[in-house]
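Hi, here's the filled form for the chain we discussed.

Project: internal
Contact: R.S.
Residues: 191
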Amino acid sequence: CFSFDLVQSQIVFFIKFKFKLLNSMASPTKIDPTDKKILDILQTQGKITNAQLSKDVNLSPAPTLERVKKLETLGYIKGYYAQLNREKLGLGVATFVSIKLKNHNETSNKEFVTHINEIPEVVECHYITGSSDFLIKVVSTSIEAYQTLIINKISAIEQIDNLQTMVILSTLKDSKSIPIPDEVVKQQVTK
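And the returned structure, exactly as it came back:
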C-alpha cells in the first residue's frame, strides 16, 4: 500500500540528513604540493620514519614533522592503523548485507546504528540511498558462523524490515588510499 505520508517523511529525513552532512563538511583548507606528497606517502607507508619521509619530500626532519602534526591537527590525517590479514586470523567469510528499516526516522536510525556498533563482526556500516537504507560489511569464520550471527544478532534488531546478503567471492581491489583532489592543493607561485 502506497503512503504519501511515508514517502514525504523519508524525503524530509533524507534532506535533513544531507544538510547536516554538508554542514559538517566545511570547504577543505588548501594544502600545498609538499603536504599532498606527505599525505600520499603516509597513506601507503604508515610506518615510514620521519627521517625517511623528510628525504622523500626534500625537507629537513623538523619541518617535515611540523607539517605532519599540522595535517593531523587540521584533520587530514585521522589516525594510523595496522591492516590485518583477516584470512590469517580465520575470518575467511566476508559479506555485504543491504538492510531496509521498518521506519525511516532519526530515532529508528540511531537505535539501529547503536545495535550494529555492538556487533564486532560488522566492520563497516554505511547509510545509503536506493532501495535499502544501510549497507554493512560483515566478517566471520565460516558460513555457519555467519548464519548464526545473522539469525541471533542482526535479524534480532527490531528496526530491520528486510535484509539481503551478498557473499564476497573475491576482492579485486582493496585500496586504503584515497585520491587527493587537485582543487585542494594550492599551486605555488613562482617568482
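Let me know if anything looks off before we file it.
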